[in-house]
TrEMBL record:
GO molecular function: endonuclease activity; hydrolase activity; nucleic acid binding; RNA-directed DNA polymerase activity
Region (Disordered): 561-590
Top-level taxon of origin: Eukaryota
Gene3D superfamilies the record matches: 1.10.10.1450, 1.10.340.70, Ribonuclease H-like superfamily/Ribonuclease H (3.30.420.10)
EC class (word): transferase
Any single GO CC term annotated in Swiss-Prot or TrEMBL for this entry: DNA polymerase complex
Alphabetized Pfam families for the sequence: HTH_48, Integrase_H2C2, rve
Record protein name field: RNA-directed DNA polymerase
Length: 590
């Protein structure tokens, strides 16, 4: 039995026979110095048991017998249960762990007793608290090395993990290592030199956890490796290239030396195999391209092929406006033709971004960019994220086409149309792509639902009216025009490319377009310049017409849409140019 008297640093232990009347067989007392008194109660009591069992005070009574160890400190019950000693947790204090290993040589069971029921340990020991004799003779009657064998087994199993040959070298290498030799002598003699190397100083701070076993050193249950054997241990740890974290976990189970973790990290970092096969480094933060205005920067990329056709996709970085061109080939010359067509339609950008495709690195494409005064930027090799604007649009176009692959060209045009007029949250101010790119809204299927609020300025209307009047006056002066009127029911002659036919005005489509019902029952649409009134009832013989008229004869049916669109004249007047003044009299005289 064991208990502790608070305030006096007084530990008392009693050996009691439990056969019949629980008579006291032996009693022990120890006054702790102030340093030990500041330790936790469980640690102090465990220290007392260790001293008594080691010195032999109770060994004569307890060795070879099964006994019960009673204490009034409950945490010790969970800490020192014999069935849990071999699996002591790494969080257990190193000193308590070492004492627990010492107690493995005894067969006992620990149990908790309340302090109020603890009467035996307080009997006579308090009277002798100031008269202890630490120089009592110790009689050794037997040498039992069961505990030491357990420790040897820990040492051997730890070093055997890295090969049995290393165990044979361990004692020799430890003895030849000057720093470890100094530590071993200091532990055995309990005296450390005042001046020592940094390695010895490192172990000096951990002296309570170090033990000497067969000319080897253990730090807890880990073998201290001499400097000469450390490369071999590191090589064994690195077998199979497990990586830094797994190597550290394995090393912390079995071996120890100063800066072990740093040596493992250095070994892995210097390994060429690990460097060539390791994962890519963590990605750096993205650096967005600067964007200020439309056509400042444009991205392009190829997609396909789709049924033998490739898609060249243009994306404006600022507005996200997209244009797609189809081509059966992706040669550099064809790429230049497509770029020239798109840039002539929207104007060339300041910067053009593409990948390292051969179409974009060819000399002809480089010369084209210089000609158009375009700064061409090539993205990093094998890094499509640098051209992410075009890559995302390639994905969007592919998914749109996949919805109707049988008629993918129509599906592509429908996608482009809807994509351009739909408001986009990623675009500036959430406007549609076309509105940002062109500076105005384009018509959509829903534009008729809400009347447009846009109106031209009065100055623009006046300027356009003046220009139209000037154009009309110049046309009249050049062609000598004369106004004519036709109404439904008028009998007319209709001019075709190689003949003329009779008909009747059926509908007035606009100021200059009429629908005529021919005598043969066919309904045609003609410009007023190709129609004139028929006088009389003469028949048309259609002689060979040799003039310079150019006709456009559409295949029209009777169902013609009536609108007020003004068509341009589709023929050239047969009248010659106006004669200069003064020639009329000469002509009349002749």
């Amino acid at each position: 039995m064991s208990n502790f008297v608070p305030g006096n640093y007084d530990l008392r232990t009693a050996l009691i026979f439990c056969y019949h009347l629980k008579k006291t067989a032996a009693e022990s007392h120890r006054m702790l110095v102030e340093t030990y008194g500041k330790h936790a109660l469980g640690k102090s009591q465990c220290f007392e048991w260790f001293k008594k069992f080691k010195s032999g005070d109770f060994t004569y009574f307890l060795w070879g017998r099964k006994f019960i160890l009673q204490t009034d400190h409950k945490p010790l019950v969970a800490l020192l249960q014999t069935e849990n000693m071999k699996g002591l947790k790494s969080t257990t204090a190193a000193r308590l762990k070492r004492w627990a290993i010492r107690l493995l040589g005894y067969d006992f069971r620990i149990e908790y007793i309340r302090t109020t029921d603890f009467g035996h340990a307080d009997a006579l020991s308090r009277l002798m608290s100031k008269f202890r004799d630490d120089n009592a003779e110790e009689l050794q009657v037997a040498s039992i090395r069961t505990t030491e064998n357990e420790i040897h087994l820990i040492r051997d199993s730890a070093i055997d993990t890295f090969g049995k040959d290393l165990r044979l070298q361990l004692a020799t290498a430890t003895d030849s290592d000057p720093d470890l030799k100094t530590v071993m002598n200091a532990i055995q003699n309990n005296v450390f030199p005042t001046e020592c190397s940094p390695i010895v100083e490192h172990y000096k701070k951990r002296i309570d956890c170090i033990s000497v076993v067969s000319n080897s050193l253990l730090l807890g249950d880990r073998v201290i490796i001499p400097k000469s054997m450390q490369p071999d241990i590191l090589s064994s740890l690195h077998k199979g290239y497990p990586g830094i974290r797994r190597m550290k976990q394995l090393a912390r189970e079995f071996v120890y030396w100063p800066k072990l973790s740093e040596d493992i990290e250095h070994l892995v970092q210097q390994c060429n195999v690990c460097a060539l096969t390791k994962k890519l480094p963590i990605k750096v933060p993205i650096s967005p391209w600067p964007m200020k205005k439309p056509l400042e920067r444009m991205h392009l990329d190829f997609a396909g092929p789709i049924e033998g056709q490739y898609l060249l996709i243009f994306v404006d970085a600022y507005s996200k406006f997209i244009e797609v061109m189809t081509t059966p080939t992706i040669s550099s010359s064809r790429t230049v033709e497509l770029c020239r067509e798109v840039f002539s339609r929207y104007s060339p950008p300041d910067i053009l971004v593409s990948d390292h495709g051969t179409q974009f690195t060819a000399d002809i494409f480089t010369q084209f960019c210089k000609e158009m005064q375009i700064s061409h930027i090539l993205t990093a090799v094998n890094h499509p994220q640098s051209n992410g604007r075009a890559e995302r649009m390639v994905d969007s176009v592919k998914r749109a086409i996949a919805k109707n692959p049988s008629n993918w060209k129509k599906e592509l045009q429908d996608f482009l149309y809807s994509y351009r007029y739909t408001p986009c949250t990623a675009a500036p101010e959430g406007k549609s792509l076309a509105e940002i790119f062109f500076g105005r809204r384009i018509n959509s299927p829903f534009s008729k639902l809400i009347p447009s609020s846009w109106k031209p300025s009065p100055a623009a209307v006046e300027d356009l009216s003046i220009k139209n009047q000037n154009m009309q006056r110049q046309f009249e002066q050049h062609h000598g025009t004369r106004s004519r009127t036709l109404k439904p029911g008028d009998r007319v002659i209709v001019a075709f490319k190689d003949k003329r036919e009779l008909g009747v005005i059926e509908h007035i489509l606009s100021n200059s377009r009429f629908q005529v019902l021919l005598d043969n029952g066919r309904s045609v649409e003609r410009h007023i310049n190709h129609i004139w009134k028929r006088s009389g009832t003469q028949e048309i013989h259609n002689p060979s017409i040799a003039d310079d008229w150019v006709f456009y004869e559409p295949d029209m049916t009777s169902d013609v849409t009536h609108d007020n669109t003004e068509l341009q004249p589709c023929c050239r007047s047969t009248r010659g140019p106006r004669q200069p003044a003064g020639t009329h009299s000469e002509r009349d005289a002749s």
